[in-house]
Amino acid sequence: MADRVLILGGTAEARELAAALVSAGAFEPVTALAGRTDTPAEIAGTVRVGGFGGVDGLIEHLRAERYTALIDATHPFARQISEHAARAAALTGVPRLALVRPPWRAGAGDRWIAAADERAAAEAVRDLDLGDATVFLALGRQRVQDFAAIGGRFLLRTVEPMPPPFESFRMTAGRGPFHRADEQALFEAEGVVVLVCRNSGGASGRATLDAARDLGLPVVMIDRPEPPEPPCVETVAEAFGWLRRRRTVSA
Q: What's the pTM?
Protein backbone atom coordinates (compact mmCIF):
# COMPACT_ATOMS: atom_id res chain seq x y z
CA MET A 1 0.00 0.00 0.00
CA ALA A 2 1.30 3.46 -0.90
CA ASP A 3 2.20 5.82 1.93
CA ARG A 4 -0.02 8.90 1.92
CA VAL A 5 2.12 12.04 2.34
CA LEU A 6 0.83 15.59 2.82
CA ILE A 7 3.13 18.20 1.29
CA LEU A 8 2.55 21.80 2.28
CA GLY A 9 3.61 23.33 -1.02
CA GLY A 10 3.83 26.41 -3.15
CA THR A 11 7.56 26.10 -3.86
CA ALA A 12 9.65 24.50 -6.60
CA GLU A 13 10.98 22.05 -4.03
CA ALA A 14 7.45 20.92 -3.16
CA ARG A 15 6.73 20.25 -6.84
CA GLU A 16 10.00 18.36 -7.29
CA LEU A 17 9.29 16.21 -4.24
CA ALA A 18 5.76 15.39 -5.38
CA ALA A 19 7.10 14.32 -8.78
CA ALA A 20 9.76 12.14 -7.17
CA LEU A 21 7.21 10.45 -4.92
CA VAL A 22 4.85 9.73 -7.79
CA SER A 23 7.71 8.28 -9.83
CA ALA A 24 8.79 6.08 -6.93
CA GLY A 25 5.37 4.43 -6.89
CA ALA A 26 5.39 3.71 -3.16
CA PHE A 27 3.91 7.03 -2.13
CA GLU A 28 0.68 8.95 -2.63
CA PRO A 29 1.56 12.66 -2.35
CA VAL A 30 -1.11 15.28 -1.70
CA THR A 31 0.19 18.82 -2.20
CA ALA A 32 -1.68 21.57 -0.36
CA LEU A 33 -1.64 25.07 -1.87
CA ALA A 34 -2.89 28.27 -0.29
CA GLY A 35 -4.67 29.26 -3.51
CA ARG A 36 -3.13 32.72 -3.95
CA THR A 37 -2.57 32.22 -7.69
CA ASP A 38 -5.26 31.28 -10.21
CA THR A 39 -2.90 29.25 -12.42
CA PRO A 40 -0.35 27.39 -10.27
CA ALA A 41 2.42 25.39 -11.92
CA GLU A 42 1.59 21.77 -12.71
CA ILE A 43 2.07 19.38 -9.79
CA ALA A 44 2.26 15.58 -9.84
CA GLY A 45 -0.20 13.64 -7.71
CA THR A 46 -3.21 15.06 -5.91
CA VAL A 47 -3.51 18.81 -5.30
CA ARG A 48 -5.56 20.42 -2.54
CA VAL A 49 -6.26 24.17 -2.78
CA GLY A 50 -7.28 26.36 0.15
CA GLY A 51 -6.43 26.83 3.81
CA PHE A 52 -7.08 24.37 6.62
CA GLY A 53 -8.61 26.78 9.11
CA GLY A 54 -5.69 27.04 11.52
CA VAL A 55 -4.07 24.36 13.64
CA ASP A 56 -7.35 22.66 14.53
CA GLY A 57 -8.33 22.34 10.89
CA LEU A 58 -4.96 20.88 9.97
CA ILE A 59 -5.20 18.39 12.83
CA GLU A 60 -8.62 17.30 11.63
CA HIS A 61 -7.35 16.91 8.06
CA LEU A 62 -4.31 14.87 9.09
CA ARG A 63 -6.46 12.48 11.11
CA ALA A 64 -9.27 12.18 8.58
CA GLU A 65 -6.97 11.49 5.62
CA ARG A 66 -4.67 9.10 7.53
CA TYR A 67 -1.38 10.54 6.38
CA THR A 68 1.81 8.69 7.23
CA ALA A 69 3.99 11.82 7.02
CA LEU A 70 3.83 15.60 6.68
CA ILE A 71 6.39 17.56 4.68
CA ASP A 72 6.48 21.30 5.28
CA ALA A 73 7.90 22.57 1.96
CA THR A 74 6.40 26.05 2.17
CA HIS A 75 8.19 29.31 1.41
CA PRO A 76 11.00 30.14 3.89
CA PHE A 77 9.05 33.25 4.95
CA ALA A 78 5.75 31.40 5.53
CA ARG A 79 6.29 31.16 9.26
CA GLN A 80 2.66 30.86 10.37
CA ILE A 81 1.88 27.72 8.38
CA SER A 82 5.20 26.20 9.46
CA GLU A 83 4.29 26.82 13.10
CA HIS A 84 0.86 25.30 12.51
CA ALA A 85 2.44 22.26 10.85
CA ALA A 86 4.80 21.65 13.76
CA ARG A 87 2.00 21.93 16.34
CA ALA A 88 -0.44 19.77 14.37
CA ALA A 89 2.15 17.07 13.79
CA ALA A 90 3.07 17.00 17.46
CA LEU A 91 -0.57 16.72 18.54
CA THR A 92 -1.47 14.00 16.01
CA GLY A 93 1.76 12.02 16.11
CA VAL A 94 2.20 12.33 12.34
CA PRO A 95 5.94 12.43 11.50
CA ARG A 96 6.91 15.85 10.14
CA LEU A 97 9.89 17.16 8.23
CA ALA A 98 10.63 20.74 7.14
CA LEU A 99 12.20 21.13 3.70
CA VAL A 100 13.82 24.59 3.66
CA ARG A 101 16.15 25.56 0.83
CA PRO A 102 19.35 27.31 1.92
CA PRO A 103 19.49 31.11 1.88
CA TRP A 104 21.47 33.11 -0.64
CA ARG A 105 24.93 34.27 0.36
CA ALA A 106 26.51 37.49 -0.84
CA GLY A 107 29.56 36.99 -3.04
CA ALA A 108 32.23 39.10 -4.66
CA GLY A 109 30.68 42.11 -6.36
CA ASP A 110 27.34 41.92 -4.54
CA ARG A 111 26.19 45.17 -2.89
CA TRP A 112 23.69 43.98 -0.29
CA ILE A 113 22.03 46.11 2.36
CA ALA A 114 20.56 43.96 5.15
CA ALA A 115 17.05 44.71 6.42
CA ALA A 116 15.15 42.96 9.19
CA ASP A 117 11.73 43.27 7.52
CA GLU A 118 9.76 45.21 4.91
CA ARG A 119 9.56 48.34 7.03
CA ALA A 120 13.32 48.40 7.52
CA ALA A 121 13.79 47.74 3.81
CA ALA A 122 11.58 50.72 2.93
CA GLU A 123 13.60 52.90 5.31
CA ALA A 124 16.81 51.72 3.63
CA VAL A 125 15.41 52.68 0.22
CA ARG A 126 14.37 56.09 1.53
CA ASP A 127 17.87 56.67 2.94
CA LEU A 128 19.37 56.06 -0.51
CA ASP A 129 17.64 59.29 -1.66
CA LEU A 130 16.90 58.06 -5.18
CA GLY A 131 14.63 60.88 -6.33
CA ASP A 132 12.50 59.69 -9.27
CA ALA A 133 14.58 56.57 -9.99
CA THR A 134 12.80 53.22 -10.12
CA VAL A 135 13.01 50.59 -7.37
CA PHE A 136 12.26 46.99 -8.33
CA LEU A 137 10.26 45.13 -5.67
CA ALA A 138 10.48 41.33 -5.86
CA LEU A 139 8.18 40.91 -2.89
CA GLY A 140 4.60 40.12 -3.84
CA ARG A 141 1.62 42.43 -3.72
CA GLN A 142 0.81 41.85 -0.02
CA ARG A 143 4.14 43.23 1.23
CA VAL A 144 4.52 46.65 -0.34
CA GLN A 145 2.51 49.03 1.87
CA ASP A 146 5.61 50.28 3.68
CA PHE A 147 7.14 51.31 0.35
CA ALA A 148 4.09 53.24 -0.75
CA ALA A 149 4.37 55.22 2.48
CA ILE A 150 7.86 56.56 1.66
CA GLY A 151 6.98 57.80 -1.83
CA GLY A 152 9.02 57.22 -4.96
CA ARG A 153 8.66 55.08 -8.08
CA PHE A 154 8.32 51.33 -7.86
CA LEU A 155 8.11 48.42 -10.27
CA LEU A 156 6.37 45.41 -8.73
CA ARG A 157 6.43 41.93 -10.22
CA THR A 158 3.62 39.46 -9.56
CA VAL A 159 3.06 35.94 -10.88
CA GLU A 160 -0.16 36.93 -12.62
CA PRO A 161 -1.08 40.31 -14.20
CA MET A 162 -2.99 42.57 -11.83
CA PRO A 163 -3.63 46.27 -11.28
CA PRO A 164 -1.12 48.29 -9.24
CA PRO A 165 -1.87 48.48 -5.49
CA PHE A 166 -0.82 52.15 -5.28
CA GLU A 167 -0.63 55.07 -7.72
CA SER A 168 3.19 55.23 -7.60
CA PHE A 169 3.52 51.58 -8.67
CA ARG A 170 3.94 50.06 -12.10
CA MET A 171 3.41 46.35 -12.63
CA THR A 172 5.09 43.53 -14.51
CA ALA A 173 4.11 39.86 -14.47
CA GLY A 174 6.37 36.81 -14.59
CA ARG A 175 6.83 33.34 -13.19
CA GLY A 176 10.26 31.84 -12.53
CA PRO A 177 12.64 30.37 -13.27
CA PHE A 178 14.07 33.68 -14.40
CA HIS A 179 17.18 34.11 -16.52
CA ARG A 180 20.07 36.43 -15.85
CA ALA A 181 20.14 38.11 -19.27
CA ASP A 182 16.39 38.67 -19.26
CA GLU A 183 16.50 40.20 -15.79
CA GLN A 184 19.33 42.51 -16.79
CA ALA A 185 17.39 43.61 -19.86
CA LEU A 186 14.32 44.30 -17.71
CA PHE A 187 16.31 46.42 -15.25
CA GLU A 188 17.89 48.43 -18.05
CA ALA A 189 14.62 48.96 -19.93
CA GLU A 190 12.78 50.09 -16.79
CA GLY A 191 15.58 52.24 -15.39
CA VAL A 192 15.84 50.19 -12.19
CA VAL A 193 18.52 51.42 -9.78
CA VAL A 194 17.77 49.29 -6.68
CA LEU A 195 16.43 45.78 -6.12
CA VAL A 196 14.48 44.87 -3.00
CA CYS A 197 13.84 41.19 -2.21
CA ARG A 198 13.55 38.67 0.57
CA ASN A 199 16.30 36.11 1.14
CA SER A 200 14.18 33.29 -0.23
CA GLY A 201 17.03 31.23 -1.68
CA GLY A 202 16.67 29.03 -4.74
CA ALA A 203 18.03 29.03 -8.27
CA SER A 204 15.19 31.01 -9.87
CA GLY A 205 15.64 34.18 -7.85
CA ARG A 206 19.43 33.93 -7.94
CA ALA A 207 19.33 35.03 -11.58
CA THR A 208 17.77 38.32 -10.49
CA LEU A 209 20.53 38.88 -7.96
CA ASP A 210 23.19 38.05 -10.55
CA ALA A 211 21.67 40.60 -12.94
CA ALA A 212 21.76 43.26 -10.22
CA ARG A 213 25.42 42.46 -9.53
CA ASP A 214 26.27 42.64 -13.24
CA LEU A 215 24.78 46.14 -13.36
CA GLY A 216 26.35 47.23 -10.07
CA LEU A 217 22.95 47.76 -8.42
CA PRO A 218 22.51 47.72 -4.66
CA VAL A 219 20.18 45.05 -3.26
CA VAL A 220 18.13 45.60 -0.13
CA MET A 221 17.94 42.05 1.22
CA ILE A 222 15.29 41.21 3.81
CA ASP A 223 16.56 38.71 6.36
CA ARG A 224 14.85 35.38 6.87
CA PRO A 225 12.81 34.66 9.97
CA GLU A 226 13.89 31.89 12.32
CA PRO A 227 13.77 28.45 10.65
CA PRO A 228 11.00 25.96 11.45
CA GLU A 229 11.37 23.52 14.30
CA PRO A 230 13.64 20.55 13.51
CA PRO A 231 13.95 18.13 11.89
CA CYS A 232 14.85 20.18 8.81
CA VAL A 233 16.60 19.38 5.55
CA GLU A 234 17.71 21.61 2.66
CA THR A 235 17.22 19.45 -0.43
CA VAL A 236 14.53 17.38 -2.13
CA ALA A 237 16.91 14.40 -2.16
CA GLU A 238 17.23 14.58 1.64
CA ALA A 239 13.46 14.78 2.10
CA PHE A 240 12.92 11.84 -0.26
CA GLY A 241 15.53 9.82 1.61
CA TRP A 242 13.85 10.60 4.94
CA LEU A 243 10.53 9.30 3.61
CA ARG A 244 12.16 6.18 2.14
CA ARG A 245 13.86 5.38 5.44
CA ARG A 246 10.63 5.80 7.38
CA ARG A 247 8.84 3.50 4.96
CA THR A 248 11.58 0.86 5.27
CA VAL A 249 11.48 0.96 9.06
CA SER A 250 7.66 0.69 9.21
CA ALA A 251 7.43 -2.07 6.61
A: 0.92
